[in-house]
Write a structure and sequence with these properties.
By secondary structure, the chain is α/β, with parallel strands linked by helices. The protein has a domain at 11-119 and 201-272: 3-Layer(aba) Sandwich (Rossmann fold), CATH 3.40.50. The chain is built from 13 helices and twelve strands. It has helices at residues 6-13, 74-81, 109-118, 127-130, 137-148, 153-166, 172-175, 185-197, 215-232, 243-249, 267-272, 277-284, 324-328; strands at 36-45, 48-58, 63-67, 90-99, 102-103, 120-123, 203-207, 235-239, 252-257, 260-266, 334-336, 339-344. The strands form two sheets. An eight-stranded mixed beta sheet has the order 6-7-8-3-9-10-12-11, with helices on both faces. Strands 2-1-4-5 form a four-stranded antiparallel beta sheet, with helices on one face. A hairpin with a 2-residue loop joins strand 4 and strand 5. It is globular and about 65 Å long. The protein starts with 5 loop residues before the first helix and ends in a 6-residue tail after the last strand. Bound molecules: adenosine-5'-triphosphate and magnesium ion (MG). Adenosine-5'-triphosphate (ATP) binds next to helix 2.
Length: 350
């Protein structure tokens, strides 16, 4: 008899690029309240809602993927979690960011500084813009440790070396005295991860952490994050354009379009049966969905910017299967038929 999950694994496997990772065990479902819960998060800029009604969970040890075309609101959502938005130009106008039962949006900024680094850390796409070019790697990693831990400067430097070794930087002792420009992109991203992890955050928000890296280094960095979350129980919110990466590493995935979550599901379920027409189209654009050498399909048109979103479902002008309601009313994010942990915001789901 066939195993029930075999078909799904086969389908999902088709999107994976590194076969070694296919056999990794997924995170167990602990049934606990999630560590992070975004509840109806809405971000406004210049009178327009940039991100609307985003509800998203991440449990301890879980890796959750956030995907969607450029401009759909992934980065601003990530920045809102850490209260790093360029306020007042863009700011939360509704909803909550609950971390372990505490609403980060209502914390005084001073308390928020304690949360950053201690509880939540973030890594960005291009490490060179986040590292200080005139300080050594040792100074920068040990600085992060000194900020949050009661240790001597020498103790912090020792901890920095241990952290660099943990993130797989070759010759970590020598690396302490080097400057960011003396390192490769992959090495710099490891330094950034070391800084982010220096104080053992419970949540790591990673905004396209490997987009600037070649595929081999990309796999090394993602494997590292995957190992760390299994080892330490850290939750990871992974923002990426790359659905292959999501298929390989994420337990669950949320698809954003035009500032809203349009589909959310366990990764297996999403890859086996995408329900939203946008998710379907997005999956169809992946090289793994097409025969070798074939011209990849593109989704015609562009993501509408905030303020230019059409009424109803923002995707309907680009959708291949619209029905009458699509232009008239915004569909709710509702459980998909026969799949309570799979939700979709579509009047005519697949
Ligand atoms: N400081 C700001 N003030 C006003 N609007 C902003 C600000 N920052 C971002 N936006 C707008 O928010 C929308 C979402 O931007 P965001 O950077 O989150 O997209 P993204 O999904 O991360 O895209 P990409 O995949 O290209 O990184 C865009 O329309 C952008 O113009
Ligand atoms: Mg972004």
């Amino acid at each position: 008899m066939k195993e029930p999950g075999a078909q799904i694994d086969k389908r999902r496997g088709q999107y994976m690029t590194n076969s070694a990772v296919q056999d990794r065990p997924r995170s167990p479902d602990t049934g606990q309240a999630p560590l992070l819960r975004l509840e109806g998060l809405t971000l406004g800029a210049g009178g327009n809602a940039v991100v609307e009604d985003v509800t998203l969970d991440a449990a301890a040890g879980e890796m959750v993927g956030l995907v969607g075309e450029s401009g759909c609101g992934k980065s601003v959502t990530a920045l809102a979690i850490l209260r790093l938005l360029a306020e007042p130009q863009i700011r939360p106008t509704a909803g909550r960011v609950m971390l372990d039962g505490r609403d980060l949006l209502s914390l005084p900024m001073r308390d928020m500084e304690g949360v950053r680094g201690n509880d939540v850390a973030m890594i960005f796409q291009e490490p060179m813009t986040s590292l200080n070019p005139v300080l050594t790697v040792g100074d920068q990693v040990s600085e992060a440790i000194l900020l949050h831990r009661d240790v001597s400067r020498a103790g912090a430097m020792e901890a920095a070396e241990a952290m660099l070794a943990k993130v797989g930087l070759p010759a970590p002792h020598r690396a302490l005295g080097r400057y960011p420009h003396e390192m490769s992109g992959g090495q710099r991203q490891r330094v950034m991860i070391a800084i982010a992890l220096a104080c053992g955050p419970r949540l790591l928000v990673a905004d396209e952490p490997t987009t600037a890296l070649d595929v081999t280094v990309q796999a090394q960095i993602l494997d590292l994050l995957d190992d760390l979350r299994r080892e330490t129980g850290m939750a990871v919110l992974l923002i990426t354009h790359d659905l292959g990466v999501v298929a390989q590493y994420c337990d669950r995935v949320a698809v954003m379009y035009g500032g809203r979550i349009v589909e959310q599901a366990p990764a297996d379920a999403l890859f086996a049966h995408p329900r939203h027409r946008y998710s379907q189209a997005l999956l169809a654009t992946m090289p793994a969905s097409n025969p070798p050498g074939a011209r990849l399909p593109a989704i015609a048109g562009l993501v509408p910017p905030p303020g230019k979103r059409p009424p109803g479902c923002a995707y309907h002008p680009r959708c291949a299967h619209p029905v009458e309601s699509c232009a008239a009313r915004m569909p709710p994010l509702a459980p998909a038929t026969g799949a309570p942990d799979h939700s979709v915001r579509c009047w005519n789901p697949a």
